[in-house]
Design brief:
It is a single chain. The protein is 77% helix and 2% strand. The protein has helices at residues 2-34, 42-66, 72-91, 111-115, 119-135, 139-169; strands spanning 38-39, 100-101. The longest helix is centred in the N-terminal third of the chain and has 33 residues, at 2-34.
Amino acid sequence: MFFTAHVHALFGLVMVARLMTVAVAREKERRLRARGSMLAGKITAHLMSMAHAAFYLLAAGEFWWRGAPFSPMTWVGAALWLIAMLGLLALREVWTVRVFVSRRELRQTGSLYRRFRHPSYVLNIIPELAGVGLLAHAWFTVALCLPLYVALLLRSIRTEEDAVRSSFQHR
């Protein structure tokens, strides 16, 4: 029972941290819009936002329904989630929840972008969702929702690449 309380506290911390990252992203989006950036792929952005929230809610429901035990999988999930948060720190100012483009902004070509074509997805979103699912022992959520989310990510990648290509083609 002692360790189960720790898992609940850890999962609660993850949920609060997620809400904080959304608040930070919204502020960054406000600044991008003020500088003339435009949201690319509005429908995809809304679908991804809904899917992300649904993943967290389903994982939370499954977590409390199962009474997730403290196990090695808890540590694996926590480690993946921590990697995702470190990914956010590495991306700093260029990270947002949605895709924004501007002809006034510079194309990102730093070391992360040389190593990963889409570092936000590789360093943040995928490890975040996998980590939350494993931490919560939310096997149903991971098995059902993660493949669907990856399909949305692929759609978002196409949207992002089209928007960037169009934006930088006019320079």
